[in-house]
Specification:
alpha+beta; 4 helices; 9 strands; about 25% helix; about 30% strand; Immunity protein 53 of polymorphic toxin system
Length: about 150
């Protein structure tokens, strides 16, 4: 199963960004995908869920477009933001099922999750093409927040 995860190609566009401005109202990271990425990431998370070992996968991210920044509408879409070129999904089977941690790295961000949070993440990603958004996944301390937004681009 680990070999399938390593070989899995994530297609489509994945967007992740955090705000520098108005961080009090928008703490954490923001996330959206296009339809292809939603399907591809869902397949990847299926593989991770079926693996008995901890697994991780690095994914290239895109810069959010103005249309996507207008969805959360932080400061009417003008709030300063930053992005990282990579997102690593890290399924930690050795952690508690509700484990959830986001780490900002030099060249990316890493999202660590246990089995329960994997299911939440997968459902959130599947819902984006259906217009679902404006909700978040976080840890028990309401830190390591990942907001999900519908993708306004076709």
């Amino acid at each position: 199963m680990k070999a399938k995860i390593e070989k899995h190609k994530v297609s489509g566009k994945v967007y992740a960004w955090t705000y520098k401005d108005n961080n009090r109202n928008f703490p954490g990271w923001n996330f959206t995908v296009d339809l292809k990425a939603s399907e591809s990431l869902s397949e990847l998370l299926d593989l991770m869920s079926g693996c008995e070992w901890s697994t991780k996968k690095k994914i290239k991210t895109e810069l959010p477009t103005q249309a996507q920044l207008n969805v959360p509408n932080n400061q009417n879409g003008t709030a300063k933001w930053k992005s990282k070129p990579n997102l690593t999904l890290n399924c930690k089977m050795s952690e508690l099922e509700n484990h959830w941690l986001i780490k900002e790295l030099d060249n990316g961000i890493e999202i660590q999750f246990g089995k329960e949070k994997l299911n939440e993440l997968q459902n959130a990603i599947k819902g984006i093409p259906k217009g679902n958004g404006d909700f978040a996944i976080s840890d028990q301390n309401e830190e390591s927040i990942l907001y999900f937004w519908w993708n306004s681009e076709k």
